[in-house]
Specification:
The protein has 11 helices and no strands. It is mostly helical and 169 residues long. Helix 8 runs parallel beside helix 10 and helix 9 runs antiparallel to helix 10. The two termini are 35 Å apart.
Length: 169
Amino acid sequence: VELMYRRADERGEAAGALYLGVLLEDWGDLAGAEAAYRRADERGDAAAAGYLGALLDSRGDLAGAEAAYRRADERGEAAGALGVGALLQERGDLAGARAAYERADRRGHGAAASNLGVLLEEMGDVAGAEATYRRAAARGEAAGALNLGVLLQELGDLAGAESAYHRAD
């Protein structure tokens, strides 16, 4: 498999570089993975930009991670918008984080819906939080189901909370 990905990468195929990067990252070759992700990103691959952002984020290169996440987001990648949202939320830019999470949520990302729900709940929008937690849970996001359960329990809907907790489990 590695040889196939390397050959595709050598031919300039973005997908070959992306999948090679995933393989190298799984094997612990982070420098090789980063180089492969960069090649795929330079070739316009949205997912590669997202993977590069996550790798740089894990290394603490927040400026590099944000730039990569933004490229992924601009190319329509939900994970890129999620990454942008998380970095903006960490910086205290709640309006920017909300907008980024909403983009990722519209693209069907479960974790983004869960994160958006947390943010909405912190902003006092309980109905909005419940709706986003429900979307997250419907997408199989355990954190969204758990958050929904906690919220429903706080609202006194014990049967709904129990159901949500079972989904989270």
